[in-house]
Amino acid sequence: MVVSMRSHQVLGCVVGIAVLSACAPGPPSEWPFGTAGAASERSEFVSRPDLNPPIVTMTGPGTQQADDGYYFVAPKDDWNDDDDLWAGGLILDEEGSPVWIDEGDTRKYGFRVQNYADEPVLTWWEGDINPPVALGEIVLMDNTYEEIARVSVGGDLEQGTTDVHEMTITDDDTLLLLAYVPTQTDLSEIGGAEDGWVYEDVVQEVDIDTGEVLFQWRSLDGVPVTAAKTGISDDKGTKDNPFDYLHLNSVTVDDDGSLLLSARSTHAVYNLDRDTGDIQWVLGGKDSDFELDPDAVFGAQHDAHRQSDGTITMFDNRASEENGDSRGLRLDLDMDAMTASVVTEYSPPEKRWAVSQGNLQELDGGDVVVGWGSEPYFSRYDSDGELLLEGSIPMESNYRAFFSDWEAAPTEPPVAVLETSGDSPTVHVSWNGATEVESWRVRSGQDEADATEVALVERDGFETAIPLDQSAPYVEVQAMDVDGNELATVVVPQ
Q1: Which phi and psi angles does 294 have, rounded to 5°?
Q2: Whole-angstrom Cα distance, residue 105 to residue 108?
Q3: How far apart are the first and last CA of the chain?
Q4: Per-residue pLDDT averaged across 393-409, rounded?
Q5: Strand partners of residue 250
Q6: Measured between alpha carbons, how far is 174 from 253 in angstroms, rounded to an integer?
Q7: Residue 76, SS3?
Q8: What share of the chain is helix, strand, coil (3-state, %, to 5)?
Q9: What is the pLDDT of residues 341-373, one digit of tens each?
Q10: What are phi and psi of 219, to 5 degrees?
């Protein structure tokens, strides 16, 4: 079996619209990371001492604008840093305050909201990483934070060998997945052995419900090893160390139903016919079918998408620092003249070269969210490319960043702790993942029957501290929505 399903249904909620990198090819020791995470700053909560997420700082004029939605990130420390490893996913409000903290032993990649069976779900990749190969599966979670499915590549590929780079759910409730498969091939044209080895990239479309593989494409059938922009070194191209000649890092649906493939190692975007498996055109790289304007040339890019206006967007890492800052990029493709030109650049507020990872998400209304990958920031721009806000994450990197509507009611109850050591007793309360809490009401008395309201305060970030005039034998806290309805009640331990 490729997929496992829970018996319960995905719960309804408001529908609105995360990884390792396409990392620089080479041994793990050559992988660079961003510098913002040099000293990881962590939050501490009285009610949830088990949660210590990184403190995300939001800056820019957009931080003062109320927004319907949340930011989704899954930051990570250096993958070799086992002493101070933070792993998990974060849902953040517009001020950078966490709404949901998933902290544990497993890193999440590509953490975001997608639609499955007409309901919003959280999705991410998790598994084992041995660069440049990642072996894992895709997790789907409903809006109570209950896991509902795990999906992997299948068919002639071993289950659990899904690559980290892509997990797009299509309108047909299928998943677009990748795998890197060691394959023997002739590398003599690029200076390797005739009996050399490469990582062949395999694209699959898998039915989420049944696990059936509906489509499969192998890269050596359409992209030759000579397309690689990175040269093959003496220690590459062997069975023990295959040459990562293509390094696909995104698979998305084009406007005609074909697939768009982004490949880091060839600096190219490919259009793949879903019916025939043929490459219909190549944008960028050595074998481009388009003539690119000088400012439209990109390299080592990630996350290519066709947008509703016909443009192609991507995160352009730039192949080297000498090529300039990394950027979000929107290109116009003239299919008659076969030319490509820049429509909009989404430039960083300061010098920034992301050597790996990154993404660009277009929102309804024209705003754009850019995740900077190995530089642990995410930025929001208006449709003209003007910066609205930026989030800074004090960790090593963050594969992708997203913004989405999300409405959730956790199955786990709120947590409240009473502190009595200060000038007055104080209740600290939080409800990890709850999106509908507007305020907290405290009731106290001799017992439950005697309890009356003693405080009503607005929710203040992940954890709210509520001072009380005096202690009482019985204290309870109620989570209230915007209309004053009770969502949940927790009795405070004495």
Answers
A1: -55, -40
A2: 10
A3: 49
A4: 96
A5: 262
A6: 12
A7: strand
A8: 5, 45, 55
A9: 999 999 999 999 999 999 999 999 999 999 999
A10: -65, -35
Residue 87 has pLDDT above 90, yes or no: no
Query: Could you tell me if 343 and 312 are in contact, meaning their C-beta atoms sit under 8 angstroms apart?
Result: no
pLDDT digits (tens, 9 = 90+) for 134-155: 999 999 999 999 999 999 999 9
| Tokens 């990483």 -> residue | 129
Report yes or no: 21 and 373 within 8 Å, Cβ to Cβ. Answer: yes
Q: What share of the chain has pLDDT > 90, as a percent?
A: 82
Separation between Cα atoms, residue 107 and residue 56, nearest integer Å? 18
Write b or e for each residue in 322-333: b if 16 or more Cβ atoms lie within 10 A of its Cβ, otherwise e. Answer: eeebbbbbbbbb
Rounded Cα gap, residues 57 and 96, in angstroms: 6
Q: Residue type at 401?
A: A
Write the burial class of residue 115 (CB in 10 Å: 0-12 exposed, 13-18 middle, 19+ buried).
middle
| Distances 376 to 71, 234, 357 between C-alpha atoms, Å | 14, 33, 10
d(CA 314, CA 302): 6
Task: Pick the closest to residue 9 from 131, 139, 140 (CA basis).
Answer: 140
> What are the Cα distances from residue 153, in Å, to 135, 238, 357?
10, 25, 22
Give Rg (Cα) of the chain.
Answer: 24
Contacts of 176 (CB under 8 A, 6+ apart): 166, 167, 168, 170, 203, 204, 205, 251, 252, 253, 259
- Residue 129 bridge partners (DSSP): 134
d(CA 476, CA 494): 11
What are the backbone angles phi and psi of residue 300, rounded to the nearest 5°? Answer: 55, 30
- Please count the other Cβ atoms lying within 10 Å of the Cβ belonging to residue 387: 18
Q: Is residue 451 classed as helix, strand or coil in its secondary structure? A: coil
Show the beta-strand stretches assigned E in 367-421. Answer: 368-371, 377-381, 387-392, 397-398, 402-404, 415-419
pTM, to two decimals: 0.91
User: Per DSSP, what are the bridge partners of residue 149?
Assistant: 5, 140
Both tokens assigned to 103 = 């902290």
Peptide bond into 348 cis (omega under 30): no
Give the closest residue to 359 by CA, choosing from 1, 12, 19.
19
Nearest to 157 by CA among 113, 121, 117, 200: 200
Tokens of 383: 């449709």
